[in-house]
Amino acid sequence: SPSRSSVIIVGAGISGIAAAKVLAENGVEDLVILEASDRVGGRICKESFGGVTVELGAGWIAGVGGQQPNPIWELAAQFELRTCFSDYSNARYNIYDRSGNIIPSEIAADSYKKAVDSAIQKLRNQEEEEEEAYGDDHCNNNIKNSETKLPSTPETPIELAIDFILHDFEMAEVEPISTYVDFGEREFLVADERGYDYLLYKMAEEFLFTSEGRILDNRLKLNKVVRELQYSKSGVTVKTEDGFVYEANYVILSVSIGVLQSDLLAFNPTLPRWKLDAIEKCDVMVYTKIFLKFPYKFWPSGPDKEFFIYAHERRGYYTFWQHMENAYPGSNMLVVTLTNEESKRVEAQADEETLREAMAVLRDMFGPNIPNAIDILVPRWWNNRFQRGSYSNYPIISNHKLFHNIKAPVGRIFFTGEHTSERFNGYVHGGYLAGEALIFQVCIANG
Ligand code: FAD
């Protein structure tokens, strides 16, 4: 019969590793980490491309420079991760129309202000509706407004482009985002050849056996796809796709909300209704960074030109661009970010087609004579069955109960992951803090 450990952690992303580390620090060392893929890191994932290390998943340490220290920023400082400051504020002055003209700065600034005002208005209206519907029983209802005005709907390419960056990129002007409120408004791009996941490795070094940059501890089991969790009052039995069975007193489940929504995991008995409802209600955001390598640089460089925007009549169509000259000088690389439906669309087509589309957009902006990209990298977070999306996206005005239920344990199964962080969901530090905080739940359960 399988040997029984105290705790099984499913998933070796930032939250799973953080949970394991705190458990080990508190004397729970007979733990097993089951990871479906062949590496640690999950949505922190580097790849070598065009001569440099690029981050297919999390790229920034978001929330730096404020009153409280961001734990990920502290780790990055401790382990001397190479980062560079990202200044998004200039992006709105680098908006190109389809004829390659840069929108004059007064017009851009004006459109930006209008979009922010309209978004704030929309939020207020929603809050009032919620208040009428539910009374005072939800958070975020501190903005009061006496008259309900209709927010304007973005229609022109420039309005659509601004709407896209405001909403799909969570610009802090519209709503108070806890990450920026607590940790500060600055963001730093990780540009380190060792990768963002170097931080996870350094964390693992403190409690797992490692040698020459590799984790060799047999409590970490890679390529173990959990398919079934059978739980009772006395313990949990976990079955993996390759037919192995593991037993433990408790399980910590760190898989993404997208995985929980999919049918990868079977629970026996099935999860209670309140849990299934909460999982169903949480939206999954798809966010795709497409990397393009060129024989030489043809775009304007300089820190104030790092981010630029393409205004097209289709919302989110190759809208948001970044050059990599600040991060990796001489890399001749651009990154374009797509989200949601556009992400799913390009995931489903051949990369050559995506390359053609991106080149047509670049020729709109920079003219017909620019060189073709010599390589392209298209991550597929949506079609990855161990991810099913990029991060959780709670409704802006969300019910406190939803978080509570997403996070709440079911019998001997605990839930962690970025989606269980009420203040910081969607971020690396959210995953980290959620994993770290689990020790309390486990200790209480353990008596
Ligand atoms: P994960 O990293 O997903 O870890 C869960 C692990 O569980 C994975 O390793 C997975 O393989 C494993 N798993 C899944 N199913 C099973 C199974 N059945 N059996 C065993 N193992 C399983 N955050 C930021 O702070 N800054 C950013 O700039 C940023 N940008 C992002 C860009 C992209 C494209 C993406 C995808 C994410 C980004 N994020 C960013 C979000 C951040 O990456 C996540 O919030 C965080 O890494 C999630 O960590 P986690 O431990 O909760 O989940």
Structural class: alpha/beta
CATH fold assignment of the domain at 4-44 and 196-282 and 395-446 = FAD/NAD(P)-binding domain
Helical content class? 25-40%
Low-confidence stretches: 138-146
Query: What is the gyration radius calculated from CA atoms?
Result: 23 Å
Our estimate of the beta-strand percent is 15-25%
Q: Can you walk through the features of this model?
A:
About 40% of the residues are buried. This protein is about 30% helix and about 20% strand. Strand 3 and strand 4 form a beta hairpin. By secondary structure, the protein is α/β, with parallel strands linked by helices. It starts with a strand and ends with a helix. It is built from twelve helices and 23 strands. Among the domains are: about 5-45 and about 195-280 and about 395-445, FAD/NAD(P)-binding domain; about 105-185, no CATH class. Flavin-adenine dinucleotide (FAD) binds near residues 37, 43, 254 and 256.
